[in-house]
Amino acid sequence: DYSTIRDAVVRAESMGVDAVFNWDHFYPLSGDADGKHFECWTMLGSWAEITERVEIGALVTCNSYRNPELLADMARTVDHASNGRLIFGIGAGWFQRDYDEYGYEFGTPGSRLADLRRALPRIIDRWGKLNPAPTRDIPVLIGGGGEKKTLRYTAEYADIWHGFSDADVIKHKNQVLDQHCADIGRDPSEIERSAGSQPQNVDAADSLLAAGATFIILRFDGNKGYDMAPLADWLAWRDEQNAA
């Protein structure tokens, strides 16, 4: 139920997390395939109002589901509603049921990546035209690990890269991303590196940090009641690292 999601977001902020993310799908990715589910950006508008400090965003919004100019305007609106706390996460899309059920053309991985490549400059250009303008340069997070295209687009457009894999893969992908930055003359340190982990796996924290990830995102499952207890260990580890 949405009240359960809302409570989890508020509890996470009260515990001291830095950011809270949802995802951009129309159906659950685990458990009951037809289980309860809610739309991503409407939810982010709510989160902007029920939180005060944390950054919020989608991990990640699907480029295919909304016109780029509309998506830019939606992001700008959530940016204002949250007083400048939106992280704009975006990717090319992959979950075919979303496409089939909602009437979007699924295409191929190549065509979806090409669409993303065309959309990114349009989104950024629209932010420059909107009145009022965004409250800040909205940070762009690109999620995905494709080495030839996704990481190249990250080098060109993103402020944060999120990899959906373990530490060894994250380390390798970071090296690929660094090379793309070198190819276009961008300082790779301008792009923060993000990785995911399971809440119970705090032992993975050091290896992710060593792989270059300074932004670690934990996945909590609403089907299991949003058990936030493991957050305490992660937050203690974060605070220890930040104090070093």
What does this 3D model show about the protein?
It contains nine helices and eight strands. With 244 residues, it is an alpha/beta fold. The chain is globular, with a radius of gyration of 18 Å.
Calculate the terminal CA-CA distance, rounded to whole Å: 41 Å
Low-confidence stretches: none
**DSSP helical segment count:** 9
Largest sheet: 8 strands, parallel
Shape: globular
Q: Kindly state the mean pLDDT as a whole number?
A: 96
Number of E-state strands: 8
- The secondary structure category is alpha/beta
Order of helices and strands: HEHEEHEHHEHEHEHEH
Strand content: 5-15%
> Compute the gyration radius: what is it?
18 Å
Helix amount, in percent? Answer: 40-55%
Please outline the helices and strands.
Blueprint: H1 2-15, E1 19-22, H2 40-50, E2 55-58, E3 61-62, H3 68-81, E4 86-91, H4 96-102, H5 109-127, E5 140-143, H6 150-157, E6 160-163, H7 167-184, E7 192-197, H8 205-210, E8 215-218, H9 231-243
Parallel strand pairs: 1-2, 2-4, 3-4, 4-5, 5-6, 6-7, 7-8
List keywords for this structure.
single chain, 244 residues, 8-stranded parallel β-sheet, 9 helices
Summarize, please.
Helix content is 45%, strand content 14%. With 244 residues, it is α/β, with parallel strands linked by helices.
